[in-house]
Amino acid sequence: MKPLIEKLPLEHHQSFIARTFRTPHFEVPWHQHPEFELILFTEGEGNAFVGNHVGSFNTGDIYFLGSNLPHTFQKSGEEIITSAIVVQFLDSIWGPQFFSLPECREISKFLETAAVGLKLRPALSEELRPLIIELEKAQGFTRILILLKLIATISESKRYDYLSTHEMANLHSKQQARIDKVFQYTIEHYADPIGLDDVASFAGMSVPAFCNYFRRCTKKTYIEFLNEVRIGKACQQLIDTPKSISSIAYESGYNTLTNFNKQFMKINRMQPGQYRKAFAGTSMHISAERTAEFECI
Q: What is the distance between the alpha carbons of residues 188 and 171, in angstroms, rounded to a whole number?
């Protein structure tokens, strides 16, 4: 399955999108689009899949994604309401020569950097949150000015973390399609007992060929990627539910608690119980607090 090519409708009087999408209209499977995307989460929490990156998102987080970078944001539970202000724009909306101007060269380099996906650090997200909210409500030329200010501020601040790898961003179309197919399969079936035989067969390759191919494309083994997906899902459950650690382990695809603890420690550098104690309640508290802030603006 290739990632869905998402095309959001533009208003006739607008050159780019800045709009809130909320459950059930927020949920989109593994997809890509030629537009750059700036996304501010205003409600909810869950797992972020960006290129070969597996992580988590919470209310207040901001991501900046490059053109045609496959991604999906999966909420942590069926009952969770998720919403975000999504800004999508093509770099051509200002004309073909705009980013060739001397004043725009640094921004042009920054947009190339976004090919791997960026997650803004908390202080910068707090700084830009009101501006993104203002952008959604703005009209006319003010929209252009605000969007440029957002891009320039992110570019100049350097306060962001890289998500995927350059190797993932530079795959040719045939490689991308096969990797996308494997990623979507993993996201949908992570809780099942997936073996290398299963996923190699799904990709139409022998096990040795698949293992070499996946590592060459993503700079990690398939088992490492599968464990990242499973542990990412487990982290959300540890924070959001009172389920026992053993139940979460089995629901995340692990047959033994020992292996679950080993993989959890490897990825998070702490045991599941320590993680729950450190983060339990914080996600819900932050989500409720920030959602209230958004409603007051």
A: 23
Q: Looking at residue 1, what is its pLDDT?
A: 43
If one counts the domains in the chain, the total is 2
Is the Cβ–Cβ distance between 128 and 150 less than 8 Å?
yes
| Whether the Cβ atoms of residue 286 and residue 59 lie closer than 8 Å to each other | yes
Are residues 74 and 191 located together in one domain of the fold? no
Mean pLDDT for the stretch of residues 153-159: 96
Identify whether residues 13 and 145 lie together within a single domain. Answer: yes
Which residues touch 86 (CB under 8 Å, ≥6 apart)?
8, 17, 18, 19, 20, 21, 37, 38, 39
pLDDT digit string, tens, across residues 201-259: 999 999 999 999 999 888 899 999 999 999 999 998 898 889 999 999 999 999 999 99
Task: State both tokens at 221.
Answer: 């083994």
Nearest to 185 by CA among 199, 206, 175, 171: 199
Are the CB atoms for 244 and 226 separated by under 8 Å? no
Closest CA to 2 of 164, 175, 167, 168: 175
Q: Is the pTM of this model over 0.85?
A: no
Give the separation between CA 46 and CA 157, rounded to whole angstroms: 27
Q: Does 45 reside within a domain?
A: yes
Contact predicate 33/11, CB 8 Å: no
- Show which of 118, 150, 166 is a domain's final residue: 166
Q: Of the residues 144, 166, 188, which one is the last residue of a structural domain?
A: 166
Range of the domain at 218: 171-282
